[in-house]
Every structure is written in structure tokens, then in C-alpha cells.
Amino acid sequence: MAWVLVLIIAVIILISWLAGRKQPRRTLPTSTTLAQTPPRTATKPKRTLELLKSGYERKLRLTIKYETGNPLPGEPAIKVRNVDIYGIGEEYFDAFCYFRNSLRTFKISRVLSVTPGDQYYEIPRDYVPSRWVTEGVTGHLKGATRGRVK
Prior knowledge:
Distance between the termini: 68 Å
Structural class: alpha+beta
Shape: rod-shaped
Oligomer: single chain
Number of strands: 5
């Protein structure tokens, strides 16, 4: 019977010790980028847009430093990409990405820096601008409907 009393006292001491202990503060790793956090800006936004538009008008390949909204675990948040811009809007631009070897849509506010290259390109005749480029966020979401994808 005495051992039960000792066990109860030990449990009470353990519980009170755990309750009084400070929990370490948990923080996200610095390499994690959440979609709702604004991107860091290395180049002034107006200058970035000017360089992107200039590259598009001159059909000049660009090297961009781009911050991904939600990188995969172990993947860097900031990436360097060589792109040919096919279409540019106020918030987004369509570009052929040489790393992915496909047409991608990039958000202008996530472009941290732009470096013009020395290679020229041509836009394919069958290129059709995405709604992100032609209408921006409001136009793109205007046509969105809820429901099941078939």
C-alpha cells in the first residue's frame, strides 16, 4: 500500500514539474516561405517592371531571380531562371522557362532582380496569353466557379 502512495506522490511531482517548465518557442525555418508573406525585394519594383517590359519589347532573354510562393521542403525559396517573355500584364507574365523547359506564368512582384542577356528569341505563332496576363487576378477569378472538376 505504501508503494501506491509513493507512486501517486511521484506522479504529482512530475506533473507540477512539467507544468512549470518553459516550452521552447517554435519558429519556422528561415528558408520556408509562406504564400501570404510578401516577397523580399532586391530590385525596386518599378525598375524590375521596366526591365521585364524592355526585355519583352526587345525579345531579349532574361535571367531573373525569383521567389517561390510555397517551395517544397528542402527546395530553395529563391531561384534563378533564364526566361523568354511571351506576354506581360500588370501583375503576371508568361515566359518560356529554360530550367523547366516549358511555358510558365510568373508573378511580377516575386521577381527580385532582372539581368538582360545577349540572346534574342521569337514568340511562337501558336502562343495564347494566359488569363493571368490578359486580365490579372480579378479577371482570372471572375470566371472561376466552384464545383467538381471532371
